[in-house]
Fold this protein.
Amino acid sequence: MSINEFIVHLNRIESVSERTEALYKFTLRYLRNSNDLNGCFELIQQLETLGSSHQDMLGFAHAYHCYANYYGFCNNHNEALRYFNLAATHYDKLNRFREVADLTIDLGNFYYVLFQPEKSLPLYAEALEILKHNYDSYIMARAFIAWGAQLFILRKYAEGKDKLLQAYHLAEVHGYDLIFARASYFMLCYYLNQKDIAGMRSIYLKYIITIRKNGDKFNTYPAVCGLIGRMYLLLGDTKRAYRYLYKQILSLPKYLRAPIAHMDMVYYYLYMKQFKKAIFLLEKTLLFSEQNLQIYWIIAIYELLADTYVQQKDYKTAFYIKLKQEKLTNELVLGEAGAYSETFFYMKELCTNIKKGLNKEAENTESQKLFKTFLEKEDLGKIPEILSELTKKEIEVLGILSLGYSDKEIADSLFVSIHTIKTHLRSLFVKLNVKSRVELILMNQKLGLTARNTK
């Protein structure tokens, strides 16, 4: 239903309380399933006006709840948290426990988007605890699917599957189309990860029957097509795989094709060993992710790039990418802020390295042996301790060295003498326990220092 159609329907409702509830439910649904933020804001203003004209405290609480979601989508985090607190206070005073549970899930989703699982996961558990005494199957299904999706991103697949199954069954029994479609998608992801073809076919069959019966109101079919295409890759059926992946691209709006369809098509190109095409699509996905600050896509890109280099037998670059991926994943788990800029810089650096042809360097068997020895010898947990032992100048030298500069070029860039640079390098050899420039560069890659982030 469009906004105009809903307003016509709303004007026919005489009871103020019923009108408030209807407007609240439509606004929330529209917020969660639409990109029309201007339309959402107008609806929220109407809800607030309705509450103020009748001095309705519940109307204000509903408006605050919608404002919290709106500002969350607009990335205005301070305003979003302010309205979350206002809505919670009003709902508590009115003893509206189901709305409190729904609000708690939305707050969890707010932290989910901010990559702070240590805050989001307890909120989902808290919402389910409230619903034990104030049962609402729809809100409960929302909590389970949000919790399961967060666990999947943290790669806790077994725990995530349990939560998603509960959301799946609730949605199936009560006919919650959107939750059923999303749960189906995540269950397909799980079975694909486990390479369980029978499980994928079972979920897909139920999903197809449901959308043929009720329609694909929320356009979930393209994402599911991508997973089915990857299932056929597992089976070695490249023709069907390409057909589903191409169907996915055609089914998506242009602004969504880069992050979703391109990532799935990359698997096809990797399977066919068409590495240049795979890297081209990864670069396009990177550009979209950078513009939209979608850090989870960046982690997925790391994964695929590492796989690409492993298949090219460029283990050095693959390991370098894996370190960056691990660093970023740890930042997500710890909920650390400020990961955006460095992540995008690393990604651009990797794409540049691809073009420079780093795989040629790895063709040297001695280089591979050295790299393997280095990998077995070093401990990732020692990195922060090692960094604290280095001076600021030593860190700068180490970062610039990674760009392949000679001693003279490093000296020129730092406006010091070559003798000073050699002194710093000797000190780095001792402190980092390495014996050559090659080992020093490998250590530098592990530490994640670059000419940019040493300044």
Residues 378-455 form a domain with the Arc Repressor Mutant, subunit A fold (CATH 1.10.10.10). Confidence is low (pLDDT under 50) at residues 333-384, 450-455. The longest helix spans residues 315-334.
